[in-house]
Structure formats: structure tokens, C-alpha cells
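Support request from a user on the community tier.

User writes: "When I paste my C-alpha cells into the form, the page sometimes reloads and wipes my input. The last time it worked, I copied everything first. Here is what I submitted, just in case something in the input itself triggers the reload:"
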């Protein structure tokens, strides 16, 4: 038994495998220890996440270098073997390869990063993690109104970046244009109504005007874009039922629901304070009975 073990230990193939196994084990033990110690010392979530990702990437690079060093004199045969098996592997693992390629596209192309709000593969939410094969998303919407979390964690294959559009709500321009519609009865003071709605937009959402304008200007330098108004804007149309005022404004992608609540609250209070000069309109339905019929018998 001892002779058999010694024979295998002196075998170059077994020696390389043992060296490779021990080397990989030592590398990843050190990486895991560094990740735990740094995780305890770094308080910022974003910095801690990026540090762990960098350490994992370093571990993979060192592992690949170790493999090349151990099998440096066997690389020619290894390359031939890969060439023979490459076609079959590519066909059997095409989705896996597409996901890895998608990961490279995400990282190198900066399509999105952890913390961004995206819509990917029909799923909308905030990116929690970008793995080699899948992107982890905390989903928003669905059975929950607005842009609030619903608690469902979704794993989306990275290959989706080649199949469907990637919507990034917080990329180089982390703002959205949003609008609310206010129905006002005919006969109201339209100028006063416009003033109230515009003032509400300037007070609630006007603080983002300068910041969003600066971001939009930087986009114009980088891309071919027309100039766009980032200040709150009020427009109106008259339909069969009421005069409809529309307030258009720029809002942070994470504050759409909160901003709408604040705008409606302020506008309703100001309209009620006019003492009837401005009245909110609503759809009303009136059921008409048959007229009363009187019959006189002579």
C-alpha cells in the first residue's frame, strides 16, 4: 500500500494536481479571510461590496496564473484538447457562454452597476449584485403600486442584455420627467389655477432644476441631444368635461411617488383656499326618471 502511494506521489501528473489543489485552497482561504476582516472594518455598504468584488476577481486571476504556471510545459497539448472539445462545449453551454459574455458587456460597457434602478428582461427593480452568470434584482411594482419594493428578489440571466433593451433609470441622467393632471371646472379662474399649480411645482420639485440641467448639458456634450426644459411647466387643454391642467417636472427616479403626493396635497389645499374661485372637476352621472303622467277620466 505504501509503495503504491509513493508511486503515485512520484507521478508528475499527480504531483501537479496536488500542487494545484493545495495552491487553489491556500489562495481562496486567504481571499476569504481578507473579505471577512475588511467587511467588519468597512462601514459603507457600497465600498464594502466593491471591495469584496475586487478581492474575488483577484482570487480568480491568481488561480488562472497558478494553473498556467503548473501546466506551463503542457499548454500545447492542453490547447489542442480545448480546440477539439470547443465546438461541442460551445453548443452545449451556449446559454452559459452568452451569460458570461453578457457579464463582460455589463462590466466593460458600464450598462448598469449595483444600486442602479433598471428594467431588465421584463423585470424592474434595483440591482443588488452583478454575478458572472446572473444579475440579482430587488423587484419593484407588480402588485404594489408605484416604484416601491414588493420584496421579491429576481435573478436575471446576463444573456438578456443581448436579447432585450436595458432600461437604466439612474445612469448618466438620474432624473425622470413626470407629470400630473389636474381637472378644473369650467368657469373657474384659469389664471389663478395655473399660478397655483406652477408654484406648487416650483416649490416641491424646483430644487432639482439646476442639478438636472447640469446633467442634461453634460449629456449634450457627449451625445447628440436637443436642449430640453427642466423647469416645471404647466399646459392645459379643454375637453368635453373640464379644463385639464398638466404639470410637467423633473424628479429623482426614487421619489416619483413621494413627489406626486406632496404636489397633490399642496395643490388641493391651495384650491380649497380660493373660496370657490377654483373648483376641482369630477365625472358625474345623472339618472333621469320618466316624467310623471296625469290622466284625467271624464
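"...and here is what came back when it finally went through:"
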Amino acid at each position: 500500500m505504501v509503495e503504491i502511494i509513493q508511486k503515485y506521489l512520484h507521478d508528475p501528473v499527480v504531483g501537479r494536481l496536488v500542487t494545484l489543489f493545495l495552491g487553489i485552497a491556500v489562495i481562496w482561504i486567504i481571499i476569504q479571510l481578507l473579505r471577512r476582516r475588511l467587511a467588519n472594518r468597512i462601514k459603507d455598504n457600497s465600498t464594502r461590496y466593491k471591495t469584496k468584488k475586487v478581492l474575488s476577481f483577484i482570487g480568480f486571476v491568481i488561480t488562472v496564473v497558478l494553473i498556467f504556471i503548473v501546466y506551463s510545459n503542457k499548454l500545447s497539448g492542453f490547447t489542442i484538447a480545448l480546440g477539439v472539445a470547443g465546438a461541442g462545449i460551445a453548443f452545449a453551454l451556449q446559454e452559459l457562454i452568452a451569460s458570461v459574455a453578457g457579464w463582460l458587456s455589463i462590466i466593460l460597457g458600464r450598462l448598469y452597476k449595483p444600486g442602479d434602478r433598471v428594467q431588465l428582461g421584463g423585470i424592474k427593480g434595483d440591482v443588488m449584485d452583478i454575478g458572472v452568470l446572473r444579475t440579482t434584482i430587488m423587484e419593484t411594482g407588480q402588485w404594489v403600486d408605484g416604484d416601491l419594493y414588493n420584496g421579491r428578489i429576481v435573478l436575471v440571466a446576463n444573456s438578456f442584455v443581448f436579447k432585450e433593451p436595458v432600461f437604466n433609470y439612474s445612469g448618466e441622467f438620474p432624473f425622470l420627467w413626470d407629470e400630473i393632471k389636474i381637472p378644473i371646472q369650467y368657469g373657474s379662474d384659469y389664471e389663478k389655477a395655473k399660478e397655483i399649480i406652477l408654484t406648487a411645482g416650483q416649490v416641491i420639485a424646483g430644487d432639482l432644476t439646476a442639478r438636472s440641467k447640469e446633467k442634461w448639458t453634460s449629456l449634450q456634450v457627449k451625445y447628440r441631444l436637443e436642449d430640453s426644459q427642466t423647469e416645471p411647466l404647466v399646459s392645459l387643454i379643454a375637453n368635453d368635461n373640464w379644463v385639464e391642467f398638466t404639470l410637467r417636472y423633473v424628479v429623482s427616479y426614487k421619489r416619483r411617488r413621494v413627489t406626486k403626493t406632496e404636489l397633490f396635497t399642496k395643490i388641493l389645499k391651495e384650491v380649497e383656499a380660493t373660496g370657490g374661485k377654483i373648483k376641482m372637476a369630477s365625472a358625474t352621472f345623472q339618472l333621469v326618471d320618466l316624467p310623471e303622467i296625469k290622466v284625467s277620466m271624464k
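Agent notes: The reload is a front-end session timeout and is unrelated to the input. The two ends are 131 Å apart (CA to CA). The chain has a mean pLDDT of 78. Escalated to web team.
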